[in-house]
Design goal:
With 657 residues, this protein is of the alpha/beta class. The protein contains 23 helices and twelve strands. It is elongated.
């Protein structure tokens, strides 16, 4: 079942995966605020590439300008004898290639050595300068890259908080977390060194090809004969790797989702002795992730040696063809090939092949990053199911009058959960909602704070359609106490004032006293400064509920929603919680999903739901007298509570002061 859900989810994502070009364009937008750093990076990239391109040319000129022009007799008279290199045509061709200096056949050996030494120092200086600008450009690009990733991470986090509850029912928390961790981490590996290396490598390739063509187009074409094969290999291997890495990113999301679910449900796993089955399921998911990564590595690993082999072929072609024309003295399509030109082309070929191989090595990270970016953008492209209108206003101070006007609601299209609900609640009334499982009780309370929207009809508060006001201003005046209380790994003090961060300490203590939580808090090791474990570990269920009630009491809501707040505690703890709720409910409109008779008896209005409709409503006593659905429900579910001790039940609610 788990595997099927992942396959369906990721299959949909695969179909709407963004194209590489569009993904890179969207990534580029995050660098907009750091254009100055990118500008300087571009300047240093160009400067560094220029230095790399000039160095082979100067190496060739060292031969053509300081060795080729001088005859053996001239060198013999000054330095003991050098053989003349090449024919007279090659010497003339070499001279025409000298841009750094003008050859002088009559120069002394001392002058030649001095000039050659100066050229060598210039080459060394260019190597040092290239190293310096490379360091600067990598620092600037890394700085801008980390800034852009910080902005992206913040945008994703904000977007996740804007998504509606429906998104989180369709996607697992582990997979969403994977977008923040694994997918953004893959981008982080590329944004600095990888991105600059690719850009500079592409610029170097273009520049080298241009220089080669400008010096000898025929020799350049021969030298680049393997270029089409390199591009074909790169495109094919990269396409296969990209598909494989997309699958790998999806599989690691599945691994994270299963891991998060298993850790969260570790008590249930051990209680039902499902450890072995969970381990087997995780191993299967982990194996799928392993296989996807291996497949991706196969293609990326095969690309580098294929390109390296083609680069050796290129070097061999340059050396053999160049050597042939030097030794034979023939011209290549009207151009004379000098020894210096051959040396320059050998260096150019090495420089050309180096960035191609480097890009191929980085392609592993690049493809993984693109696949990760696509998943991030798929998340950012998710549209919230519930949004504020463009002209939505702030919700005025709520009095507490609530009306449901022919409300229909559905989670899946065509499958209504509520059917034509009509309801009117006056300020300060307490409404108890009862009914069998799946009747629509939770859906009603989800509509009030607009966790979900109605599909038909209206929900009105004080006569105002709640879709006409902002969700933030609406929810700020509501308090919700759920059956499963969530507490953060923070101090008790901060947990209580989570909904009201600016509350003073004495206000927090007053809320805790109202919720009858003050006494047990003071018995904790550090009182209100005690740091709670994850989800309130170390506290009982009742204590967590009391803290939840204190948290709601602090925000002083006008409408209160209780979702089975006392259903999972013992009778003694329920008395404490119920006493705290009695204080909290005073003067507020409240909606209570209840399974306890003590709550229902004190309600001003009891709604009986079945199959998404209100089939009965009234007070507890009037509904019993009607002897309808509620009476049957009461006799089957609640009568046992009365038989076990009605006197105890009747004391659950403490009279209001």
């Amino acid at each position: 079942m788990m595997m099927g859900r992942h396959d369906a989810m990721f299959g949909a994502e695969e179909r709407k995966a963004t194209r590489t070009g569009a993904t890179l364009k969207r990534l580029g937008k995050y660098f907009g605020n750091y254009w100055l750093a990118l500008l300087f990076t571009a300047v240093f990239v160009i400067a560094g590439t220029y230095m790399q391109v000039v160095i082979p040319d100067l190496q060739g000129q060292a031969v053509d300008c300081y060795l080729q022009p001088y005859t053996a007799s001239q060198f013999a008279s000054d330095s003991g004898g050098f053989a003349a290199l090449g024919s007279a045509e090659q010497t003339d061709a070499a001279a025409s290639n000298c841009t750094y200096t003008t050859p002088d056949p009559n120069a002394s050996a001392e002058q030649v050595v001095r000039g050659l030494g100066g050229l060598i120092l210039l080459i060394v200086g260019l190597y040092v300068g290239n190293a310096v600008v490379s360091g600067i450009q990598f620092f600037l690009m890394s700085w801008a890259g980390f800034k852009a990733l910080t902005d992206m991470r913040a945008e994703v986090f904000q977007h996740v908080h804007r998504l509606s509850m429906g998104y989180f029912t369709r996607h697992e928390a582990g997979d969403v977390m994977s977008r923040f961790t694994n997918d953004i981490d893959t981008l982080q590996q590329v944004m600095g060194f990888g991105l600059v290396s690719v850009v500079q490598g592409l610029l170097l390739i273009v520049w080298v090809i241009y220089n080669m063509l400008s010096k000898s187009w025929a020799f350049a074409l021969i030298s680049l004969v393997t270029l089409p094969l390199m591009f074909i290999a790169t495109i094919w291997f990269s396409q296969q790797a990209r598909r494989a890495f997309r699958v790998a990113r999806q599989e690691i999301g599945s691994v994270n989702a299963d891991l998060q679910e298993s850790i969260s449900a570790v008590r249930e796993v051990q209680a039902f002795s499902r450890e072995e089955e969970n381990i087997e399921q995780f191993q299967a998911q982990n194996a799928a992730n392993r296989d996807a990564n291996i497949r991706a590595q196969v293609f990326t690993s095969a690309l580098a040696p294929a390109l390296e082999a083609l680069s050796y072929v290129s070097l061999a072609i340059v050396a053999v063809v160049g050597g042939f024309y030097i030794l034979s003295g023939q011209q290549m399509f009207g151009a004379t090939i000098s020894l210096g030109l051959v040396i320059t082309f050998i260096a150019y070929t090495q420089q050309f092949n180096r960035p191609v191989q480097q890009i191929s090595v980085l392609w592993t990270n690049i493809q993984s990053a693109i696949a990760g970016a696509e998943r991030i953008f798929n998340l950012l492209d998710e549209t919230p199911d519930v949004t504020d209108k463009a002209d939505a206003i702030e919700m005025p101070s709520i009095q507490g009058r609530v009306q449901f006007d022919q409300v229909w609601a559905e989670y899946n299209a065509g499958e209504p959960v509520l059917r034509g609900i009509d309801l009117a609640v006056e300020p300060g009334q307490m409404v108890a909602i009862v009914g069998p499982t799946g009747a629509g009780k939770t859906t009603i309370i989800n509509l009030l704070p607009r966790f979900w929207d109605v599909s038909q009809g209206r929900v009105l508060i004080d006569g105002r359609d709640i879709r006409d006001v902002t969700r933030r201003s609406l929810r700020a005046q509501m308090g919700i106490v759920l059956q499963d209380t969530f507490l953060f790994s923070d101090t008790v003090l901060n947990n209580i004032r989570y909904g009201c961060p600016d509350a003073r300490d004495e206000e927090v203590v007053a809320a805790a006293k109202l919720a009858r939580a003050h006494d047990f808090i003071m018995k904790l090791e550090n009182g209100y400064e005690t740091v709670l474990g994850e989800r309130g570990a170390g506290l009982s269920q009742g204590q967590r509920q009391l803290l939840s009630i204190a948290r709601v009491a602090l925000i002083d809501p006008r409408i209160l929603i209780l979702d089975e707040a006392t259903s999972s505690v013992d009778t003694r703890t329920e008395r404490q919680i119920q006493a705290a709720l009695d204080k909290l409910l005073q003067g507020r409109t409240s909606f209570v999903i209840a399974h306890r008779l003590s709550t229902i008896r004190h309600a001003d209005l009891v709604l009986v739901l079945d199959q998404g409709q209100i089939i009965e409503q009234g007070t507890h006593q009037s509904l019993l007298e009607a002897r309808g659905f509620y009476y049957d429900l009461y006799t089957s579910q609640f009568r046992r509570q009365v038989d076990e001790g009605i006197a105890e039940e009747e004391t659950f609610f403490v009279p209001a002061d």
